[in-house]
Amino acid sequence: MSLKVLAILAVAAALALCSCSGTSSAANSSAAGQQSADRKAAPDFTLKDANGQTVKLSDYRGKVVLLNFWATWCGPCQLEIPWFMEFEQEFKSKGFEVVGVSMDDDGWKVVKPYIAAHKLNYRILLGDETVSQLYGGLDALPTTFMIARDGKFAFSPHIGLAGKNEYLSEIESLLSTRQSASAQRPVPFVPAAVLRPAVLSSPAE
Amino acid sequence: MCLPLFCAPLYCQAQQNKLSVRPPDAMTLKRGGTAVENLRVEVLSGFHVNSDKPKDEFLIPLKLTWAAGPLEAKSITYPKPEEVKVGADLLNVFTGTFNIQTEFKTSGAAQPGNATMTGKLRYQACNNEMCFRPATIEIKVPVVIE
User: Fold this and answer.
1) What is the third-level CATH fold of B17-145?
2) Are strands B19-21 and B89-94 parallel, antiparallel or unpaired?
3) Quick one: angle between helices A3-18 and B2-15, nearest 10?
4) Do A140 and B87 touch (CB under 8 A)?
5) Which terminus of chain B is more solvent-facing, meaning fewer CB atoms within 10 Å of its CB: N or C?
6) In this complex, do B132 and A140 lie within 8 Å of one another by their Cβ atoms?
């Protein structure tokens, strides 16, 4: 391999690493313009929601998804959650969904009371180590991925607290793009916050 | 290939311990006697850990526990927490360097000689932008019973 080729590879690797901050709007802007073929598919997973329903990420193909990894013990996550509730309310009818994946080790016994106390209006799934590894380890929370209608990542991931307007511009940008994938019908979702308290307090994991 | 590249720098940051414990000095006690162990804890600059009594029920407290051994932990005293504001919330946290004090008493069955007390310090660290998953540090205190 020639020196020239090695130099080009080194620059390419450096550019890839520079886009890792997760909060760089410059990186985000460029990602928005990427062609579908250049982007990576969001790894599919199957998890249960607070109602015990099995949910696959691929069920959401055809929709713009804000995939947020969080935990009840994570302060910065709590700051973002009210924004996500607003986004869900405002954009759901336009083909957008927020999916929250809780990384609480204590499982539903802490997550269900949290959902009830904060009246979350979007679907919460309980994460596991398999999903964590699929998404890079998730040692830092919140970590949020924007997924386009074609099921591929759009924009750089947000690792840590991001700005509300940053999310808004990404959502609006993705919703404005033409739907290329055939829409599938996600599993019908009833917000756990409207479930009976008896259901919410059940210790079932 | 793309995802690990995206996450590499943050992943490295996440792997770094946000809290460390100075290896405790050996304690010497007489049978039936008591002694105090000051555990020196250091939180990485720019980070905080929840205090032993966080204000929010969902937060994970700092907690020191000792396994059964030749000594019995009579009491554990944590420092006074600081208040920091995250968003609209005031949190009770520990930052920088602090001591956790344990008062030990030799158990009745303790035999003269060398032994080890083993403890665990569970914590959950954050900065103003992100939180890291709960972690536990194992602590070993050399003990000499005379």
Assistant:
1) Immunoglobulin-like (2.60.40)
2) unpaired
3) 60
4) no
5) N
6) yes
